[in-house]
Amino acid sequence: MRILVIGGTQFMGPHVVSGLTASGHDVVLLHRGDHEASGHVRHIHGDRRDPEVVAAAIAETAPEVVVDMVAMLESDATQLIEAARGDVRRIVLASSIDVYRAYGRLHGTEPGPVEPTPLTEDSPLREHLYPYRTDPRRPPDHPEAWRDDYDKIPIERAVLGANDIEGVVLRLPMVYGPGDRQHRLWPYLKRMLDGRPRIPLGVTHSRWRTSRGYVSNVAGAVVLAALHERASGRIYNVAEENDEDEASWVTAIGHTCDWPGNVVTVADDALEGMLTSEAARHHLYASSSRIRAELGYRESVNREAALAATIAWEREHPPHGWPDSLFDYAAEDNVLSRDRV
């Protein structure tokens, strides 16, 4: 089967490509050419926001399945669907758990009580669209102007509403692993590497729960969605099964890197730069039971190995340009001396 992957050269993408090629499928990549993926696959260079580029790539490669790793705007989806009609059988969309109403409440864009968790594929979605839109909007030449129109909800609706094409939606968690440009482990790992004996967390923040997934494991879910017949028309949450709070997550990182310290809870809102107590009431823990039951999804890399690989990469590729204020140890020591719970 021929599969066109849009994006696919960074972080999760190469794992998706290798999983598809290992299954014997003919994979073609459409990407801008800023990064080249390894492996013996064909590359088409072009901007996926240009509808002529997308249409030409589909006409040239005649894929049966399109895996869209980088759809960020509703127009990305509508242009793809228009180009795919009559040729493509299935579109697989990499979406996000940020579509849920719980995410809007976490970020303060939607008032209301705490949503029941774990979140399922039938949990309510956000009512407030475009969560990162600014007022006034960013200038068109701003490097993050696209964020004003980012929202996975209308993209999902477009993909699932294309009656003549099978749509599959994967709602992805916080993805960690080698190549993570957001360096999700670094705020805690740096403190451990700097020999901090205690890491403080606000008491409510310490109990906060969210869904995570290791990069190659999450990529495996994308591969399943592309190939499994039962996935047609379905929405799947992808997440690790363990329902752990933030304190347990930090402890797991510390255990993996042999950190001898411990997590200490302090008064809510005592620390700047952390989740406030109000936000931390809203959990983002999602159930992945549907994809496990219907498609047989299982993690191929266990948590300990996943954290070890991520920590090794973070140590070799520390982020640059992070402000020193994020690691104000004197302020943390002051909090630890007076606000411990």
Structural overview:
The chain is 33% helix and 15% strand. The chain contains 12 helices and 11 strands. A 7-stranded parallel sheet has the order 3-2-1-4-5-6-10, sandwiched between helices. Strand 4, helix 3 and strand 5 (90-96) form a beta-alpha-beta unit. Helix 1 (13-22) crosses helix 8, helix 2 runs parallel beside helix 3 (74-84) and helix 3 runs parallel beside helix 5 (152-160). The chain starts with a strand and ends with a helix.
Provide a quick synopsis of the model:
This protein has 341 residues and is an alpha/beta fold. It has helices at 13-22, 51-61, 74-84, 101-106, 152-160, 186-193, 203-206, 215-227, 246-256, 289-295, 303-316, 329-338, and strands at 2-6, 26-31, 42-45, 65-68, 90-96, 166-172, 174-176, 198-202, 212-214, 235-237, 262-266. Strands 3-2-1-4-5-6-10 form a seven-stranded parallel beta sheet, sandwiched between helices. Strands 7-9 form a two-stranded parallel ribbon.
Outline the fold blueprint.
Blueprint: E1 2-6, H1 13-22, E2 26-31, E3 42-45, H2 51-61, E4 65-68, H3 74-84, E5 90-96, H4 101-106, H5 152-160, E6 166-172, E7 174-176, H6 186-193, E8 198-202, H7 203-206, E9 212-214, H8 215-227, E10 235-237, H9 246-256, E11 262-266, H10 289-295, H11 303-316, H12 329-338
Parallel strand pairs: 1-2, 1-4, 2-3, 4-5, 5-6, 6-10, 7-9, 8-11
Helix pairs in contact: 1-8, 2-3, 3-5
